[in-house]
Amino acid sequence: MRAEELNIVVTAPAPLQPKRASVRDFGADPAAGDNYGAFQKALDDSRDRGISTLSVPPGVYRFATARPLCLRGLEDFTFEGNGAELIFSRDEDFLHLADCRRVVLRDLVVDWDWGTAPLASVAHVRAVAPDRGWIEFEFTEHDDVDAGMTFATMNALDPQRLTPGCEGGKEYGRGFTRVRKVGSNVLRCHLDPAGLSEMLFQPGSVYLVRHFLHDSPAFTISDCRHLSLQRITVHSAPGAGFIVRGDTGNWEAVSCRIALRPDATRRITTTSDGMHLAQSRGFFRLEGCDFSFHGDDCLNVHDNISMGVRDVRRQTLIARNVREDERPLQAGDPVEFRRPDLSPTGFASRVTDVRYLPDDECKLAFADVLPADLDPQTILFNRRYDSSHYLISGNHFHENRARGVLLQACHGLMEGNRFYRNQGAAVQIETGASSGTWSEGSGVEDLIVRDNTFHTCDVNDWGKGVVYVSAFLPAGVPIKPQGSANPTSTIGDSGSLYRTAYPIFRDLTFEDNRFVDYPRRAMIVSSARDVMVRANTFSNPTPRASNNPERGSIWVELSSRVTFQGNDWQPSPYQAERTVEWDPGTVTGVRVTP
Prior knowledge:
Blueprint: E1 20-22, H1 36-49, E2 53-55, E3 60-63, E4 69-72, E5 75-88, E6 95-98, E7 101-112, E8 120-128, E9 134-138, E10 153-157, E11 178-183, E12 186-190, E13 206-210, E14 219-222, E15 225-234, E16 242-245, E17 249-254, E18 257-258, E19 275-278, E20 284-287, E21 290-292, E22 299-302, E23 305-307, E24 309-310, E25 316-320, E26 334-338, E27 344-357, E28 361-366, E29 379-382, E30 390-393, E31 396-398, E32 405-407, E33 412-415, E34 418-420, E35 427-432, E36 444-450, E37 453-455, E38 465-472, E39 477-478, E40 498-499, E41 505-511, E42 514-516, E43 521-526, E44 528-534, E45 537-539, E46 554-557, E47 560-565, E48 568-569, E49 580-582, E50 588-593
Parallel strand pairs: 1-2, 2-5, 3-5, 4-6, 5-7, 6-14, 7-15, 14-16, 15-17, 15-18, 16-19, 17-20, 18-21, 19-22, 20-30, 21-31, 22-32, 30-33, 31-34, 32-35, 33-36, 34-37, 35-38, 36-41, 37-42, 38-43, 41-44, 42-45, 43-46, 44-47, 45-48, 46-49, 47-50
Antiparallel strand pairs: 8-9, 8-13, 9-12, 10-13, 11-12, 23-29, 24-25, 25-28, 26-27, 26-29, 27-28, 39-40
């Protein structure tokens, strides 16, 4: 199904004999310190006794048991939240949905209990040693702080807005040699200043100290079909907002929010992504949602891949960089073999046996005889999973640390969305493999990005662009920075230093979008073929402290058949004179027309 013809079917519950119940019938009580037992009993009985609608009366319900609330094996079921709030105080998944069919969750609010442990704290740089050997941070949200607090990462905030990202803002994650308390809410942090950027820790700068990173998500969704999330609000979680995986397909999130609690001083919602699709069966819709203030990306859509093979025998090999929780393989899965540059080898086979080994390795047996000349850096695509076929429309992605959306699957339509003050790229279309970090995406084909507004995106000037299309690899075509003294870079986010000449991205259309006030390139396109960029508007009316000579332009490399048609670069002294540039040594078939 092509992107223009997308029809995402999510079948509503249709119980044969409607039955209703309330969690209050099972002992749930807003006055209780832990409602886990009552809620779990209500959910289990709903499955076992055929209850079709379970209602949560309005109120605030607290959870302290270190286990997730499980909605497992439910069919033709509605969980009616009625605006109730569920507050969690243990570092464990809040809610886990597994093996459900035709299920609706609606009108529910979930949050983390910050009284148990704050997820992050705002730190103002009060003083810096003359030799930069220590920094004093004042934690203005707290009357008192502990010198033993966790400094997982420190991310620059705009000092006036207290939002992620600011011009010249840098992040810090090396840790400190010693921390001591010099005031009730002031810590003096000692560090080795060698190699420390002059942009870091200037007096008056502000940082968000994250105490949690990729910990517990609010929702984990596994192996569900025809699931509808409606008007769900996540105020905070010590991990992602929603993690979707496995055989989940034909599902939707409509009018959901991940937003700061309005009556709190917090400056973070989820400590990692807002929504993370890490291998699924696709066919999903994200419509009318509002995602903001994440510690990472707003939305990431991808399937996982692995790089590296060894001990290749007749029909067996050991695959490297394979973790059972992230890159599951099982008997019957069709696996495609790719060369280290992501190009096809022409060989694929079904798995007949799987045995996971220590050190992120896995012994695989295949139905067919393996090629004798497999490269040690061969890449494996598990074609059981395909997160393709998605519609992302009418959403607001804003004020988060990292990217707006990562679109790393095929047959997608993204239209009518608003992006505002994303710290990195608003839209990142990427595929790549690495050793020891993440390996995501199996290529993107048939993607339409239209009628979106990108306002003040890439606000931190991460060295890429508002829309970024590129691959990352540990070997291949070396990256050569292009442009100004502060050059454009197509370096992968895993730190890889290579990309590919193989067109892993194909049939991409960017049309009728509005790009407003961004620090450098509007777009970077690499490793692509058949790209259309038409009827977009580019404007940079606002000066920056440092106006990059590439500002407002588009860069193309390692690509072919790229067309620019009817785009409007509005006059500005802060915009590059050359609006479209490409590498003549690696690009063919560029057409630029008014």
